[in-house]
Amino acid sequence: MHMRWHRGSVLSAVVTVAFMGCVPLVASSPAIAAAATQLRATPTALDFGDVQVGVTSPTQQVQVTNAGSAAVKLSGTYGSSGPFSSSGNCKGATLAKGATCNLTIKFAPTSTGASTATVVDTFNGVKVSTAVTGTAYARVLISPTALDFGAVALADTSAPQPVTFTNLTAKPMLPTMSGGVGSGQFGSSSDCDDTPLAPGGSCHFFYTFAPSAVGAATSTVRGTANGQSFSVALHGIGVPEFQVSPTALDFGNQQYETTSASQSVTITNRRATTVSFEPYSQAETPYVESSSTCSGSLAAGASCTVAFNFTPLSNGTLAETAPFYMITSGGQILQTTGISFTGVGGPTPSQQLLVTPTALDFGANAAGNISTGQSVTVTNRGITSIEMDGFQGLAPGFRATQMCQRHTLAPGASCHMVYQLDTTTLGTTSRTATGNWNGQTFSIALTGYTTPRFLITPLGLEFGPSRFENTPSQSVTITNEGSPTAITGFGASASDFIASTDCDGQTVASQASCSADYFFDATSRGRRNETATGSVSGGIVSAQSYSISFGGLELADLLITPTGLAFAPRAVGTQSPPQTVVVQNVSGQSVGLSGNTTTPANFASTTSCGDTLAPASSCTYSVTFKPTSKGVKQGVLTRTFAVRPGLTRCLCTTSQPMRVTLTGTGT
Length: 667
Known about the structure:
Elements: E1 11-13, E2 22-25, E3 37-42, E4 45-52, E5 60-66, E6 72-73, E7 76-77, E8 80-81, E9 84-88, E10 94-95, E11 100-107, E12 113-123, E13 126-137, E14 140-143, E15 146-153, E16 161-167, E17 177-179, E18 186-190, E19 202-209, E20 215-225, E21 228-239, E22 242-245, E23 248-254, E24 263-269, E25 275-276, E26 278-281, E27 287-292, E28 297-298, E29 303-310, E30 316-327, E31 333-345, E32 353-356, E33 359-366, E34 374-380, E35 386-387, E36 390-391, E37 398-402, E38 408-409, E39 414-421, E40 427-437, E41 440-451, E42 454-457, E43 460-466, E44 474-480, E45 485-486, E46 497-501, E47 507-508, E48 513-520, E49 526-538, E50 541-554, E51 558-561, E52 564-566, E53 579-585, E54 591-592, E55 597-598, E56 603-607, E57 612-613, E58 618-625, E59 631-645, E60 654-666
Parallel strand pairs: 1-12, 4-13, 15-21, 23-31, 33-41, 43-50, 52-60
Antiparallel strand pairs: 2-3, 3-5, 5-11, 6-10, 7-12, 8-9, 9-11, 12-13, 14-16, 16-19, 17-20, 18-19, 20-21, 22-24, 24-29, 25-28, 26-30, 27-29, 30-31, 32-34, 34-39, 35-38, 36-40, 37-39, 40-41, 42-44, 44-48, 45-47, 46-48, 49-50, 51-53, 53-58, 54-57, 54-59, 55-59, 56-58, 59-60
């Protein structure tokens, strides 16, 4: 990249001195104050063409004419804009009618390119504007405008790089320089002296880079050359005196107490001169420096190597970062670089085998079904083959097989042990199987749950309210969760809940079912809560206990309503109208009735209830109130019905009480 000023580049500006036609002015003398005046400026635009930077152009003029009918004295200021400026003989002049004065405008560029502007001169409060333009080109070519020194070693100074200043004019030019001096890590010198530069001749600034730190460095120098501004961007990268590569060594897997192949670190002298030094590493066991080609000095750009070995004395990943010094014979440390070492120590003989997983959970399995096998993998994680010798390890409640004994495992190869839950014991079984392969002991935690062979459901039946022999049966189902087997012992009964089943002795397929039907067979009224217990056998399951709970309610045969009568107040000795109590047969069959009625004092009753009552039919009690004295009178109408249901299986007689409360007041 370079910066160049050249003829033809445009510097534009406009200096405007224009009266925009005829401009009326105010007279400055009482003698001419009444005169109407006008000023006319021509031309209204000027073009200065091409002008070198630092050179003032030839002047150009704008003529100002008094176009009014009376003389006018001009007072005011001349204008300027950028590289354009105005002067002349108008300020203070008195112009008679038709007289003229001149504005003188010049172009003095300080930078390249086109310029346009408007120069405004003001007379008697009136602005006179002229549009101006001009193009400036360089007198000096400055190239390049950016220098990159690349990578330079610490303690070195780069070769100088020049910036050239060339005279572009047609005449000899004495170089006049200001600024442009390097600083910090960038130095400079110059051969631009007091000797004139012929047309096309050149002189130079020379820049150097002497890094004081590792990393990128930048700077920008600025100055002027014969009035022409310039800037130069400087860039360089400071690097260590020595390139050390690689800075990380990975030895991978290495068997315990064996030595790896060597890996080397290369040291390159980046300086421009020979350097005397010795490399020194602080790497520690298991990493050891094994050889070196570095002989005490290293020519510019030359390289030597230092080799390392890895001898693990323990298992697992072994990593460290060690300083690597470049030291002079006098003990001066020229450079320190960190080298990272990593490697994996192979297992000791007692840890060569990896056994995984170390825990197996067989979940829930039905009794009589051997669980699905689960594998434990034995892997040779060493770097040598091993012939397997040992035993798998057994645990009560679990079955085990293996495919490892006398099998040769190459590095990374595996064999397998298989365990199964032996479902002969219900509930949770947890054991630990301990074994040994090639002197390496291992333990496997085993757990599993054995569910009942037979699923019996439901384990509770509720028959609700019922009457003798009118309740539908309900079923209990037994499902074989295991392999096909003959079932015995299913279908136990309770006192009032009787089972009927064809399961006993039947062979039931896996996941198939059979059932027992239960009937509510109460012989008396009221609530029944009972339990039937038993044990079922089949296959390898000798006895699986079960318990079924039952509930039911045997309802009354007679519905008696209402259960209370209240009489209106009654004068002593007078009898009330009768009120009725209804006795209804709700049993669904004829019933026989017997028993005596008791009526309390102050009340009387009669009944239509005879010895029998047909299904859904009713009989009644007619009750009256006749107080014998004043006050509240209370009592209970009672009868205990001896009910004889007409049933074939129940030739029993049960009782059902009637209690109707009676209330009245004597007045």
